[in-house]
């Protein structure tokens, strides 16, 4: 029975990751850094004319299919539905708590709503839009990406009715996983689970804060009022997460079989990093440097980027501040930012196949491969980070990075990312 539950959990995690990370992969050929403008750093680096601007049709097609998958997963009363075989579902979700939790997205082939991976999905989708939204727009997919993001953040807003209360799950996973049916036809009870000051959940609250902070940047110019609502929720949730430190799988043991967390330090840094980008409040930068870097940053170590471990993504996202600068950063904060960048380069050097420090955790054809279950999640996640980091290098006119004395250029990072995309496409065809 435990093996069956684990298998279903891992299938769910795999599908979330294929959806989230494909957004990053399919724009690997774009190479235009929209985030520089969106985050409004005080420095104004110029995008190099050598950056590729062509649209590669196979990536554009993959992007379109990925965004259709988001539409397939939507719960609630559908709007502008472009999936003919999907209809309204779960319209009464949250009713027992006096809330409207009808929106959001189902977990893979299940009818569960797990707040932890759903919030992470929103964070990664936001980052992808901020980085490459102009390329999505070029292939007429940006509106779909924004709509799917808002479908999740609408749900997250409703799931946070009070400053120290967050609803993190809808549905009974044991019942749901033993009953395969269309969401339009489900009649099972849909219980809800919350974290609060008595039963806290630091990682899920912090991840939700990261989702709302990053999404507030996406909607800052599109819908300023909505952006402000998201940011207010993000700040409240971060305070909640940081004040009541306890893993949600400890507070609520029944959630352990599904998306069990290995720790919450990375989520706190992740949330504070996005809040710094969204607000420019120096207290958030201080939080990820002087206050908590030693405890949570994992300096000097490689880590496998996933829905459970965001260290590598934090290191890449904070390295952009070191690349491009910002006002009023102290010397000590800058030293910690340099450490984040150095650790990001350790991550990149571990990924590059002919690097002296390259990981051996890959197939004979070069696909990053850590474990049989969720086997593609790390490959596609690192493909995204490699493209982003290569764009930081290009835009800042950083010619190369060094891996134990060997020199690599931004194009080498891009080649690695393309190899992971290609291997994933081949894997999908085989399986």
UniProtKB/TrEMBL annotation:
SUPFAM superfamilies: Six-hairpin glycosidases. Signal peptide: none annotated. Keywords: Carbohydrate metabolism, Cellulose degradation, Glycosidase, Hydrolase, Membrane, Polysaccharide degradation, Transmembrane, Transmembrane helix. It catalyses: Endohydrolysis of (1->4)-beta-D-glucosidic linkages in cellulose, lichenin and cereal beta-D-glucans. Residues 59-421 form the Glycoside hydrolase family domain. One of its GO terms (biological process) is cellulose catabolic process. The keyword NADP does not apply. Its EC number is 3.2.1.4. It is an enzyme of class 3 (hydrolase). The keyword tRNA-binding does not apply. The chain crosses the membrane at residues 16-36. GO terms for molecular function: cellulase activity. Belongs to the glycosyl hydrolase 9 (cellulase E) family. This is cellulase. It comes from Arachis duranensis.
